[in-house]
Every structure is written in structure tokens, then in C-alpha cells.
Amino acid sequence: RLEMDRIWRASWLFAGHTCQVPEPGDYFTYEVDGDPIVIIRGDDRAIRALHNVCRHRGTVVCAEDSGRAGRLVCPYHQWTYDTDGRLLNARHMGADFDRAPCGLARAHVRLLEGFVFVCADDDPPDWEARRRWLLTLLVCLPETARLDRSGNRSFKPPCLARTRELRKKPLLTTLVHLAPSDQPASVLDNR
């Protein structure tokens, strides 16, 4: 449990690729330590990481691994969220109900050369240090794995066509998750 809290939840984790969400409303799901997250391209074309759990009764909102949705609708009581996570409609709630604080909780998301990274911790580690380290790895990728910065829909790198399988491959997992740490060696101490 300590390792999950202090290392995995508090790290920038590779979640997928921007080619998986080329259009507004496109999404894919990801899980960090049992917490479901949905990576979605908003109507403003920004990519967001939202906790995939309805704020009403805790039901998973996007049950499919990937898809497209104009709005995110909870299957339990049909609470409806915008692609930016804002709560738009809350069935069975009174007219004076304040929707503002009830949007989907956000996880931190960063993009690098088409790769999507998420951090589920409230206080994420320094992205700039991780970005610089990851860029040194990207230079080493074979030409077929180089990524299109524009996220063009027609660009589907052969090595990333099945991103879910890629996350399971030990080499990339090791390279992305075992980057030099900014944290002291005592990070796992119970102090």
C-alpha cells in the first residue's frame, strides 16, 4: 500500500497516446491503483484526465474502454457531465442545488510528443524534470516510433496502435516509471 501511495499514485504514469482521442468527445479509460480515470478530449480540444466516478453515488461513468461521448452520463441516476468535467444536470436534485462543486474530480495530465501522462496525486511531482528525462528516451526510439507533434488523426504509429498492450510491455513500463527520482531515498520510510 505504501508503494502505491508514495510511488505509483505520486508519479507521472504513461496512460496512452493523443491519437486515441483525436476528436472532441473521444475518450479512453485508465486505472491507477483501482481508481478509474477517463482521458477525454474536450469540446475546446484540450485533453483532460477526470476521475471516472460519478460524484453522486460513485458509479463508474464510462464503462467502456474507449468511445466517443458528447456528454458523460452516469448510468445510475443520469447525472450528466460536460467533457471538461462540469456537472450539467443532476436528476432528482432540487432547484437550489449547487452544481459547481460537484463536477468530476480532475487528475493531472501532461502531454509529451503525443504521449499522455497522468498523475492521480493531489500534489504531482515536478513535470519539467520528468519531461527532460523522457525527451532523452524519445531520441532513442527507432524512426518508426517517432511521434507526430500535431496529433494528426491520420498518424497512427505502428508501435502505439495498441496502446493498452504497450503499457503491459516491461521495457517501456520500466523506462517511463523508473526515471531518476526527485524524491529522497527515504520516500518509503514511514516517517
Kindly list the characteristics that best describe this protein.
191 residues; alpha+beta; seven-stranded antiparallel beta sheet; 10 strands
Task: Describe the fold and architecture.
The protein is α+β, with helices and mostly antiparallel strands. The chain has helices spanning 2-8, 127-139, 163-168, 170-177; strands at residues 13-17, 26-32, 35-41, 47-51, 66-68, 72-73, 80-81, 87-89, 106-112, 115-119. The protein has a 7-stranded antiparallel sheet. Strand 3 and strand 4 form a beta hairpin. It starts with a helix and ends in a 14-residue tail after the last helix. Mean pLDDT is 78; it is low at 151-162 and 169-191.
Short structural summary:
With 191 residues, this protein is α+β, with helices and mostly antiparallel strands. The protein has helices at residues 2-8, 127-139, 163-168, 170-177, and strands at residues 13-17, 26-32, 35-41, 47-51, 66-68, 72-73, 80-81, 87-89, 106-112, 115-119. The protein is 18% helix and 24% strand.
